[in-house]
């Protein structure tokens, strides 16, 4: 049975959480343009062995937000969710949610062990200024209440073909994303300079995962995932590196869950 509730973060923000299963606590952290729904199938599988808490990050789904965003507030949100999960928990971060998990671990949040999947850092020497330009533009679009433009900036960064963007703008899917578009600035902030930071401050056992479903002509962000994961695994003292065969940026929960379960119980 899945319970739906809220926890209150340090600044008073209400964070919507779901809880299911019985066993050690596991918290799931979603990535960009996700309100917690992306991790729901994974939660259902992990709930066979764990008490799984999945949540909507601030500004998404049933969670509220505050006028002044800072990465520290999202770290506090995660700390509040972990407190509600029993005071300490294993934590999994998907995509840009993985960057938030890494920051929380480095900040001393009571994480027992952590796992991240395909955190979209880029180790290229030319990347920080390119990333900074995107952050400035998407943050301005959000500040000026131009969610359509924010979504298009994100998709162009991901090298989505122009004709696909036109098609998406005309689809019902686009309308459903507009409510989440302001949180693109949140994710951009969580990724910092676009490259890993504070890795030496992470002392918990960590599992750094990617899939291997790559193809010729993949966009830059896909090609950057493996080098970034290698850098994470090298920079975190207690890290292991893993690859999920046949998996893309949205992995099959039936493939991912056993790997996470092994890590969280080892």
UniProtKB/TrEMBL annotation:
What sequence ranges are listed for the domain AB hydrolase-1? 27-232
Write the record's keywords in alphabetical order, separated by commas.
Answer: Hydrolase
What highest taxon heads this organism's lineage? Answer: Bacteria
InterPro entries reported for this sequence: AB_hydrolase_1, AB_hydrolase_fold
> Can you name one GO molecular function term for this protein?
hydrolase activity
Keyword Kinase on entry: no
Q: Which Pfam families match?
A: Abhydrolase_6 (PF12697)
- UniProt keyword Phosphoprotein, yes or no: no
Q: What is this protein called?
A: Alpha/beta hydrolase
